[in-house]
Amino acid sequence: MSDSSPVHHSDLDLTLLHRGKVRDVYEVDAETLLMVASDRVSAFDVVLPQPIPHKGEVLTLVTAWWLEQLDDTLPHHLIAVDPDRIIELYPDLAASRDAWARRAMLVHRTQPVLVECVVRGYISGSAWKEYRQSGTLAGEALPAGLQESQRLEPAIFSPATKAQEGEHDENITFGQAKEVLGNELAERLRALSLDIYGHGRDVAEQSDIILADTKFEFGFDKNGELLIIDEVLTPDSSRFWPKESYGVGRGQPSLDKQPIRDWLETLDWDKNPPPPDLPDEVVRAASDRYAEVFERLTGTALADYSPPLFGDGR
Amino acid sequence: MGQTTNPLDRYVHPLSDRYASPEMQGVFSPSRRFGTWRKLWIALAESEAELGIDISGEALQQMRDAVDSLDLEKAAEYERRFRHDVMAHVHLFGDDAPEAKGIIHLGATSAFIGDNTDLILHRAALELVRTRVVRCVEALSHFARRYADLPTLGYTHLQPAQPTTVGKRATLWIQDLVLDLEELDHRIGALRFRGVRGTTGTQASFLELFEGDHDRVDALDLAVGRRMGFEATYPVSGQTYPRKVDFAVQASLAGVAASVSKIGHDLRLLAHLREVEEPFESEQIGSSAMPYKRNPMRAERMCALARHVIVLAQDPAFTAATQWLERTLDDSANKRVSGPDAYLALDGCLVLLENVARGLIVNPKVVERNLAEHLPFMATETILMHATSRGGDRQELHERIRQHSMAAAGRMKEEGADADLLERIADDESFGLDRDELTAMIDPMRFVGRAPQQVARFLDHDVMPVLEKQREQILNLDDPEIHV
Question: Chain A to chain B, count of Cβ pairs less than 8 Å apart?
Answer without folding.
Answer: 68
